[in-house]
Amino acid sequence: MNKIFYIFLLTLMTTAASAQAQVVNTKAFIEWNPFYSLKWDDFQGKPGEDAAGDAGTSVAIQAKPYMVGKKVQYDVHVLFNKEKSWSRDQSPQLLAHEQLHFDLAEVFARRIRKKIQELEEQNVNEVKAYNKAIQALLEESNEADRQYDMETLHGALDKKQEMWRTKIKEELQQLSAYKKSKRVITAG
């Protein structure tokens, strides 16, 4: 139940073309979506020598900036890394616990998207302001993740696990306006 949590905040891309050049190895990652639940087959990594617990989940919140004209924009993704996620036990309860780590990351991705929208509405166009706000939410995400493991004893406390499942599900619903959407950028 040891959890690995990676967060990336990439440097500003100066053109849309350079942003497109950053391709993710899709075989190694699963992007969060509401229609996919993790399976034990997705945990393809091996635990390190110092790894404790029955499973380790590697999740990344990726905020990729790019420019549209002179306006800063961000793509925010939540990625599960198959090659760095591992398990020693394969119980349904443990898998449900690991899925909630992935879902909790999506909660924070939505909070980031919401914050980005708020900054846009305030006509903020300084990369430093966006990065500072995003970094604060990423730190909050790491703390919430640690708290989730601590309060549920890594999923061993059924009542606490159910409380967190309900909490995360409710927050995903409350933030549904900020779920990832497809965008089409046209040359103009």
Please provide a written account of the structure.
Helices cover about 40% and strands about 20% of the residues. It has four helices and six strands. β4 and β5 form a beta hairpin. With about 190 residues, it is an alpha+beta fold. α2 packs antiparallel against α3 and α2 runs parallel beside α4. It has one domain. A four-stranded mixed sheet has the order 1-4-5-2, with helices on one face. A two-stranded antiparallel sheet has the order 3-6. It comes from Chryseosolibacter histidini. This is DUF922 domain-containing protein. Pfam families: DUF922. Keywords: Coiled coil, Signal. InterPro entries: DUF922.
- The gross shape turns out to be globular
First CA to last CA: what distance? 50 Å
Mean pLDDT: 86
- How many domains in all? 1
Itemize the secondary structure elements and their pairings.
Layout: E1 4-9, H1 16-21, E2 29-31, E3 55-56, E4 58-68, E5 71-81, E6 86-87, H2 92-121, H3 127-152, H4 158-174
Parallel strand pairs: 1-4
Antiparallel strand pairs: 2-5, 3-6, 4-5
Helix pairs in contact: 2-3, 2-4
Keywords: Coiled coil, Signal
Signal peptide: 1-21
Coiled coil: 109-147
